[in-house]
Specification:
Elements (H helix, E strand, L loop, with lengths): L8 H19 L21 H15 L7 H4 L3 H9 L4 H8 L7 H4 L8 H11 L4 E6 L5 E6 H17 L7 E4 L5 H12 L3 E4 L9 H15 L1 E6 L4 H7 L8 E4 H5 L15 E6 L9 E5 H15 L7 E3 L6 H14 L3 E3 L2 H6 L2 H10 L3 E4 L1 H7 L18 E4 L6 H11 L9 E3 L1 E2 L6 E4 L8 E4 L1 H7 L13 E4 L3 E2 L4 E5 L12 E6 L11 H7 E2 L2 E11 L2 E7 L4 E3 L2 E3 L1 H9 L9 E7 L6 E8 L5 H19 L5 E5 L14 H9 L10 H50 L3 H18 L4 E4 L11 E4 L6 H8 L4 E6 L6 H9 L3 E3 L4 H16 L3 E4 L17 H9 L3 E7 L1 H4 L12 E5 L10 H19 L10
Parallel strand pairs: 1-10, 3-4, 3-5, 5-6, 9-10, 11-12, 12-13, 27-28, 29-35, 30-33, 30-34, 31-32, 31-33
Antiparallel strand pairs: 1-2, 7-8, 14-15, 15-18, 16-17, 19-20, 20-22, 21-22, 22-23, 24-25, 26-27, 34-35
Helix pairs in contact: 1-2, 1-4, 8-9, 10-24, 13-14, 24-25, 25-26, 28-29, 29-31
């Protein structure tokens, strides 16, 4: 390329990167690759040796240069290729090259806008400002006891990752976290993600009085999630070990200290945007836990959208006491703060509940600007009676006080704003929001600084016709609902009626939503997932109406009580009853229960009170009756007064109305619980039977494994010896086929073969198959005609026993790591085909433990295209589950092999080889029974 045609280095880099993008689009049309000048051609972009040769040829044509042959073996990134194109022998050329950015404009944004996973976002901050403080953790004494910067967070997570790998954790598996607020939680969460696994936060027990109910709920979640490891803390570990036998998938219960002390494999798998980043379990029933599947892409989309809606500033400070196992606390507060590099001041929920003023003081002391809480938290702050506790408090810095996760009370807004205006709190800072785990966390936010909108509507029109008509000023009992904002950027909300048709302004219906933050469904719960979706829209399970663009949530669909043709909204009644003296605020449940006599719905109110005298309890019932008549025009059918801590709540403090109804209908509403000792005894006894069944299964599996290995050793040694002695290649291969079939029959491994007629008998072909397990070679030998030449890795040639066997069956060795040698091996395979032999190749390369069809290398398809012979796609299904990678423990299972139609090349060029690869991969993916990992570059 002459000087007159020479481009400046930046323009040339852009053209080179565009050339690589075009090549990647041909190879992997579904992959979106972020390419930089220093991306690894093989690790990051997935270009195998033949693809890199094609890249060199295109570069020579595009830039009119003749590149040196040794470049193929030495280049590792586009920068190396660019250096060769520029012929950088001069200092000027080196200086030009240094000015090409690694990540264009990344440092100018202030946030990792190009990150596709949470770990990438964290790594971005670690590289840019490792010593920047991210977390300020309050201790039990109400002061900051620990500060964690990004470097410390990364180091702690890496130690946990190594410990998890030591325990055999594989990418794609689930790890449960039962930890209180503290550094251990963050080390665990990010360490699990580093290991390529999925964190499952679950909450530790709050009260020993309800320990049995709590542990049974967590057992249901652990079983549904198929958790392999549970990370907990010392005080709870004995309880967790009690339920371990009842969770078949659970291999270990460990603490962070135990994990961090282990020296496991610190290698981190490559993560992708569509990998599951979190299983967020909703507050469903014990028997049917629903784990919301959230990918890295979902979470990052939601965090970015919330950041735009809130107008995140560089000087923002986030203050939170929310539980880390709840989506608003974990995603909204913690992950959002990590992404935007905001200081996060964090205290435990117990610390807040014990002294709500600690939350307000933390906002004051750290000049917090953003802080969220459910409605009940603002109510708790109203109970601070000693003004001395608030002396000197200044809340003028608080610019957005989010109220979400449960129904927002108009009364709470007015009372809180009125009470704390004397302490600098501005009404326009109060920000009711709406979200749900199925949309990651956030779905609707109000504009910053607008303040709350309260809609006052006619009660009768709304209850009977669902029309939210503004009420006149003199209406005696209007309904009031709070605006929860407008859809986040990139998201949509609609309100539909019972027929699925979208309703008009101020008409109540079911709220549906869509957007980039939405879940793909519930983990291992297909029925619930199907109910969630309505075409491209998701059903929130909430009733709502829209007025002037704002969303007004009116109630949960499952909680609406229909009585006498009227819709009764329980939260309004619960809020009113909670204001009665001697009734515990926030501890009231109103629900419908079928009448056992006439099958109609009864209105039942369950309320907590510390009163025990019969006369005073009766007075409370009368007061609740009178209030209900005044509010609804009808009395409740039954008022149940129960002891404190009886009304069941979710981990985020919401009333579990369905669970309360179950207790009421089962006659357990008096709240009497067995002693802690008896509950522990029940848990222990319940674990004995599962433990015995588990031991029996382990014994059965172990006996089979021992038998299978004994059978294999006898079969392998006999086959090896006979193969060495038999004359003639054809006879040796026929014997191996017979021996492989006998081994499968004796090991009790059924082999179902489809498509035998597709195997070409008169001409050579290139057979390509997925590589799922150690048995694949035996399976191919048993299923295929004895005319195949197998491809083996070069490392086996240096091992005497395998080499003697492979040489006798005519195997071809290929080099996996030396790029230049791999090209020579391709020529050797072409010669084998010219001699009339069929060739068997596994284009995935080395298999891994985790299921999935990985990207194919191009070698087999280039060979077929150049030799003008068909590719025969073969799908193996079931071998991975019988003997997984990194395991020496075989299990029983079934095998099926599906041979597809031969695929003929249309020519001998690169595009023809790609077409062969794509067609073969489609067949294998359709029949192998595993997910598509086309974008996996690990």
């Amino acid at each position: 390329m002459g000087d007159g045609n020479r481009l400046d280095s930046t323009s040339l880099a852009e053209k080179l990167l565009e050339l690589i993008r075009q090549l990647l689009a041909e190879l992997h049309p579904d992959r979106e690759a972020d390419i930089t000048i220093d991306s690894s051609l093989e690790r990051d972009l997935g270009l195998d040796s033949l693809a890199r040769i094609e890249l060199l040829l295109r570069c020579e044509k595009q830039f009119s240069v003749s590149l040196p042959e040794q470049l193929f073996a030495t280049m590792e990134s586009p920068r190396d290729l660019l250096r060769a194109i520029l012929a950088l022998e001069t200092e000027e050329g080196e200086e030009q090259l240094r000015h090409i950015p690694l990540i264009p404009e990344a440092s100018e944004t202030g946030v990792p806008t190009q990150a596709t996973t949470l770990i990438e976002a964290l790594a971005w901050h670690v590289e840019l400002h490792p010593e920047r403080t991210h977390l300020l953790l309050y201790g039990q004494k109400g002061v900051v006891e620990e500060e964690i910067d990004y470097a410390h967070l990364w180091q702690g997570a890496a130690a946990v990752c190594a410990g998890l790998r030591f325990h055999g954790l594989q990418p794609g598996e689930q790890v449960a976290i039962m930890l209180p607020t503290g550094s251990d939680f963050f080390f665990s969460f990010y360490g699990i993600l580093m290991a390529g696994a999925t964190p499952v936060p679950i909450y530790p027990p709050m009260r020993l009085r309800q320990i049995e109910d709590h542990m049974q709920r967590q057992r249901g979640i652990l079983n549904n999630a198929r958790a392999k490891i549970l990370i907990t803390f010392d005080e709870i570990k004995p309880l967790a070990c009690i339920i371990k036998p009842q969770v078949e998938s659970l291999d270990a219960v460990v603490t962070v200290d135990e994990l961090s002390a282990l020296q496991g494999n610190s290698e981190q798998p490559v993560l992708h945007s569509n990998d599951i980043a979190l299983l967020q379990y909703t507050s469903g029933s014990t028997g049917n836990p629903k784990g919301v599947v959230l990918s890295h892409a979902n979470l990052l989309a939601n965090i970015r959208a919330m950041g735009r809606a809130v107008d995140i500033r560089s000087d923002d400070v986030f203050v939170s006491w929310l539980p880390l196992y709840h989506d608003m606390g974990l995603i909204g507060a913690c992950l959002g703060s990590m992404y935007f590099a905001l200081p996060l001041v964090l205290m435990s929920p117990l610390s807040f509940i014990a002294k709500p003023q600690r939350w307000l003081k933390a906002i004051h002391e750290h000049r917090g600007t953003l802080s969220p809480a459910p409605n009940f938290a603002y109510e708790l702050c109203m109970r601070i009676n000693d003004e001395r506790e608030l002396a000197g408090l200044d809340l003028s810095c608080w610019r957005m006080a989010f109220n979400g996760a449960e129904p927002v009370s108009p009364n709470t807004i007015e009372r809180f704003c009125g009470r704390y205006s004397d302490y600098g709190f501005k009404r326009q800072a109060f920000s009711p929001v709406y979200g749900l785990a199925e949309s990651s966390v956030g779905l609707a936010f109000p504009p910053p600084g607008r303040g709350p909108l309260i809609d006052t509507i006619q009660r009768d029109s709304f209850i009977r016709q669902g029309q939210a008509i503004p009420a006149a000023a003199d209406e005696e009992t209007p309904l009031r609902f709070v605006a929860c904002g407008r859809p986040l950027p990139g998201h949509q909300i609609r309100i539909v009626d019972a027929t699925g048709g979208e309703v008009g302004e101020r008409e109540e219906g079911k709220l549906q939503f869509t957007g980039p933050s939405v879940t793909s469904g519930y983990f291992r719960n297909q029925l619930a997932t199907e109910k969630l979706y309505d075409g491209d829209w998701l059903d929130s399970g909430d009733y709502a109406y829209i007025a002037e663009g704002d969303v007004y949530i009116t109630g949960r669909a499952k909680d609406i009580i229909i009585r006498g043709g009227r819709n009764i909204y329980p939260q309004e009644l619960e809020d009113a009853v909670g204001n009665i003296e001697r009734i515990r605020k926030g501890c009231v449940a109103a629900f419908a229960s079928p009448d056992p006599v006439n099958a109609t719905e009864r209105l039942v109110i369950m309320a907590e009170s510390r009163e025990i005298k019969p006369q005073r309890l009766e007075e409370l019932r009368s007061e609740i009756n009178a209030l209900t008549v005044d509010l609804l025009g009808v009395p409740p059918d039954e008022v149940v007064l129960v002891a404190p801590n009886t009304v069941l709540k979710t981990s985020s403090g919401k009333i579990r109305r369905s669970a309360c109804r179950e207790h009421f209908e089962q006659g357990d509403a008096d709240g009497r619980k067995a002693s802690e000792r008896m509950q522990l005894l029940h848990l222990t006894m319940a674990s004995i039977a599962p433990q015995c069944r588990r031991a029996l299964r382990v014994a059965t599996h172990s006996l089979y494994a021992a038998y299978a290995w004994l059978l294999f050793l006898i079969s392998a040694s006999t086959t090896w010896l006979v193969t060495l002695l038999l004359p003639g290649l054809s006879l040796r291969r026929s014997f191996i086929r017979m021996a492989a079939r006998l081994f499968l029959r004796l090991s009790g491994t059924p082999l179902i073969l489809h498509g035998e007629e597709h195997f070409p008998t008169t001409s050579p072909c290139v057979l390509v198959t997925n590589h799922a397990g150690y048995l694949d070679g035996i399976l191919l030998a048993a299923a295929m005609p004895p005319t195949l030449a197998y491809v083996a890795k070069q490392e086996l040639k240096s091992q005497l026993i395998p080499r003697l066997f492979l040489d006798r069956i005519g195997a071809i060795y290929v080099e996996r790591f030396d790029a230049q040698k791999r090209i020579e091996d391709t020529a050797t395979m072409l010669k084998t085909i010219e001699q009339g032999q069929a060739l068997a190749i596994m284009p995935e390369g080395t298999f891994r433990r985790a299921p999935g069809l990985r990207p194919f290398h191009m070698g087999a398809f280039v060979i077929a295209a150049k030799a003008n012979i068909p590719v025969l796609p073969v799908a193996i299904r079931g071998s991975r589950s019988i003997l997984r990678g990194n395991s020496l423990f075989p299990r029983r299972g079934n095998i099926s092999i599906v041979i597809g139609d031969p695929i003929l090349p249309k020519g001998g060029e690169w595009p023809d080889a790609i077409a062969l690869k794509d067609a073969a991969r489609r067949h294998i993916l359709q029949h192998c029974g595993e997910p598509d990992l086309q974008n996996d570059r690990s």
